[in-house]
Design a protein that fits this description.
Blueprint lengths: L8 H23 L5 E2 L5 E2 L12 H4 L3 H4 L3 H4 L17 H12 L1
Antiparallel strand pairs: 1-2
C-alpha cells in the first residue's frame, strides 16, 4: 500500500503488527498453561493451543459440542495455521515442534 502512495499505509502496518503481537501474546499465555507433549522419540515439547482458554485438546475439553466436531479446533482450525499466516515464523522452534508432533500423531 505504501508503494502506491496510500496515505494510511503506515497506520495499517502498525495496527497489523500490534494485532500479530496480541495473537502471539495470547498464544504464549495459553501455551504456558498447557501440559507439555511427548514425542515418539522421547522428546518433550510445549503444546500448541488450538483455542484460547482451552488448556488441552479442544475435543477433550468440549466433548459433544458442535455436533461432536469440537476436535476440529485442533485439527482443522488449530495453531498450525499461524505458520502460513505469518504469525509464527516458518523457520522457528514453534513450527518445528508443531510439525514434529503432527508427524507423530
Amino acid at each position: 500500500m505504501h508503494e502506491i502512495g496510500y496515505l494510511e499505509a503506515e497506520i495499517y502496518r502498525k495496527e497489523a503488527k500490534e494485532f500479530k503481537d496480541d495473537i502471539v501474546r495470547a498464544y504464549r499465555w495459553n501455551q504456558s498453561r498447557m501440559p507439555v507433549l511427548r514425542l515418539s522419540n522421547g522428546k518433550w515439547i510445549p503444546a500448541y493451543p488450538g483455542m484460547l482458554f482451552c488448556f488441552g485438546k479442544v475435543g477433550e475439553m468440549y466433548p459433544g459440542e458442535e455436533w461432536n466436531r469440537s476436535w476440529a479446533g485442533d485439527v482443522e482450525l488449530g495453531a498450525h495455521h499461524l505458520i502460513p499466516c505469518g504469525v509464527l515464523e516458518a523457520n522457528s522452534r514453534d513450527a518445528d515442534w508443531i510439525v514434529e508432533h503432527m508427524e507423530d500423531f
